[in-house]
């Protein structure tokens, strides 16, 4: 099930694993497995990818990075198929992604003996890229009656949905805000009028989708298997400059 109505869908380059995610979700829809179980599975895949990176098994790392991306899409698919949206699952998914992303960058820093300061800049760039992509995508989904589990502005604790515990939602929201709050504020500050914009063309969303986590992990995996690991950290630092380019394009289109 797409997060957007068909007439507003775009080519999402970070979402290459969606067909496999749909297949997995359909196989799990009548089982006891929940979206949280799938999130736990993609977390394990991410940790396995990190172990393979640290030990030099880069093709195996690429496999688990891609599988992680597939399962990352499958948990949301399963929630939509079972009609069990939850803030718990949404925040747990995002927190898991944040921690894994940090560990991915640390593992790259370790095997390349890079400057730790540059590695941290690359991590910040990675998160800002993903935040811009999610910001534009959530605005698009809310504008066109798509999936609304994610909110444009995560500035207050949401009310627990059916079968959720409010205290659990409160705790996860606080952790989520600690992890993502600074990046959200930076992106909102750079393009605070994005929610008012009426024109968000598909080609721009496709370009911004290269900031999506699935595409980022694919890039990391490909750089590893092609023996370009030393360029991963510089790439994500340099690629972050496109944040300003995409924001400028969106603003010009909506003048």
From TrEMBL:
UniProt xrefs under Pfam families: CDP-OH_P_transf (PF01066)
Superkingdom, taxonomy of origin: Bacteria
GO CC aspect terms: membrane
Keyword Transmembrane helix: yes
GO biological process, one term: phospholipid biosynthetic process
Keywords: Membrane, Transferase, Transmembrane, Transmembrane helix
Transmembrane stretches, start-end: 38-71, 91-110, 116-136, 203-225, 231-249
PROSITE patterns registered for this protein in UniProt: CDP_ALCOHOL_P_TRANSF
GO molecular function: phosphotransferase activity, for other substituted phosphate groups
Keyword match Endoplasmic reticulum: no
Similarity comment: family membership: Belongs to the CDP-alcohol phosphatidyltransferase class-I family.
Protein name in UniProt: CDP-alcohol phosphatidyltransferase
Organism: Maribacter orientalis
Source taxonomy: Bacteria, Pseudomonadati, Bacteroidota, Flavobacteriia, Flavobacteriales
